Amino acid sequence: MTTTEAPRATSPVARRKPKRKWTYYILPVYTWAVLLFLCLPIFVMILFGFNDTKGRYNITFQGFTLKWYKELFAIDGLTNALINSLTIAVIATVVSVAVGGALGMALGRYRFRGKGPLSLVVFAQIATPELVLGTSLLSLFLSLNIPRGYTTILLAHIMFCIPFVAVTVQARVAGLDGSLKEAAMDLGATPVVAFRKITLPMIMPGLLAGALLSFALSIDDFVTTSFNAGQTVTFPLWVYGASRLGIPAQVNVMGTLIFLFGLILAGYSILAGRRKKD
Amino acid sequence: MTSATSDEVKVGSTRRRMGRLTAYWLALPGGLWLAIFFVIPMIYLLSLSLMTGNFIDGFTQTFHVSTYWHTISLYHDQFIRSIIYALIVTALTITLAYPMAYWIAMRGGKHKSTYLLIILLPFFVSFVIRTLQWQFILADNGFVLGTLKDLHLVGSDFHLLATPVAVICGLTYNYLPFMVLPLYVSIERLDPRLMEAANDLYASKLQALLRIVFPLTIPGIFAGVIMTFVPVASDFVNAQLLGGAKTTMIGNVIYTLYLTNNDYAAASALSFTLMGALLIGIFIYARALGTKDVMEAAAL
Question: What is the pTM of this model?
Fold first, then answer.
């Protein structure tokens, strides 16, 4: 990458940093510009959570206030929607980690009849557009006259989370040494003990990544949910419905808090991963 | 296990049989869940699309294929528009993402994971809220257009919302990370010695890029294109929140037919057509690219 020759006379230690041509800076500047583009809506969201608006419209910045943080739960419909979203996300995460994790183990470690079609289904589900996932489930519920609501949202969310957990766990299991478990069992460990002491700690990173992904997918889901929600309202559905009338600042505040929560979780998992490597 | 005694063989084989049973027990709940809530619904989607009737009198199975021709002739504009938008957005995201993924993978150094975290940051904000922020940023008197209008750089009646530009901008924004990540993974995997070798053999940087880096990252491009094209073609949130009457995409039509008009047969016929069109598209694309194993490339 050096464009100018470093002077020969100086010793290698004291050698000046080579000057760089301006073209060297095109890519970094460009990258930061795109990163800024990606983060722009986040800045706007956080900023307007502090906006001292008069009335319902949150359009121009009128001054700094914390009142929306104090009145966070002032809108009953919005609060209920958020509670629905959070409980659905928690249940969907727990179930899909258990079910999807087992599926990932089976696909990653064992050979069995039907493995091919099963992995095809997992892949097809990930590749299917969400719109089709939503409408096909709706067709099932309509055809069988199943009323749509909280339960159907939950069923749908677990369905679209399972493949993602399965794929992350499968990738993790495939890179593992199976002989460790064999050794444990040769040394007299029961399958349960071998699982708890050997397999579980080894697939833990995969399970955690799958759990984070499931929670994020579930709490954020709009498309599949909108087709299968019936009268139940989740956070994204409420925001979408309110968008025609103008979004109250509480939405920005809740978005900011969810954002910070995700950021802390992600930061923590990166740090934990780094510590383990050392 | 090369010199196994008969005893070891016996232990091995029973364990293998047990292992196979374990595999079935492990795969069963997940497999069933996907069968009931993903595979079977597809069949119901197809079945519903072949019914005739209306919301009040109910639908009966008549195996009428005419719904398909009817809906496609009614909504082919929105169909074509969705495909065109998806093509433009995919092209835009590749152009935006490739240099960035390249720089992060090649020169990111120890900050690679930080850059990747920044790319993932938008996912911590709800999809609907993100899109609404763009509605707000691009608004007629928002801070972008408002400032431009104050400076008289654009006319006072200039607007972005409800135009294709706004919808494409929103779609590009929302699906850019899906393009960056697979590109990054495939560029990061490249052996840097290949570039050194190209340099030693007097290839210019551009030649090295076009003849070494680009061909070797085709699996990443393939994965990225599928991960953006498919969801963009079926998106309806961006067209709803940022677009107008002339930017309606096929997703909006399906949404309205299902949830407002309760015309389930037509809606499911359109969904099924969309799904089929996308599958055929992926297949042709995979063939054209010469990727032997589609699943491997997409799964990276």
Answer: 0.85
